[in-house]
Amino acid sequence: MNQNYIHTITLYNRIQASDSEDRKEHWKRIVLHNCFWKAQVNTGFNDTQASVQNTYAVRIPKDDRYLPYAEYKNSPEEHFTVSQGDIVICGECTEEITGESGKTAAQVLNRYKPSAFKVTAFSDNTSFLLAKHYRLGG
Could you tell me where the beta strands, DSSP code E, fall in 1-138? Predict the structure, then answer.
């Protein structure tokens, strides 16, 4: 095991409304251990203003519980997937995303920032000979 894979993360997978029986968006939470987490603050300036942007990189070691979204949406129990729009929090989080007031995806994400991000990039690097992992970025 890579010595940099020391973090616990909470991954919230979004099941799109069009893929659920009740036509509502649902979120499933899973806690994953022995992951890599890196957050970096980038500051920049343009002609009129300064900007601060966080960039995140997470690596999850290959895991038999992973399924591509097309398979995951039909059997999410005991599995996870990674899609753009999912949410990652550094550490173990017990909150559920229900869509009710105070428990929307945006509210949970904002409560845990800067130790949380929305997934904007994903690659499945499990076909490598060594260090098989899933890479998430945001």
Answer: 7-15, 26-45, 50-61, 87-90, 116-118, 121-125, 133-137
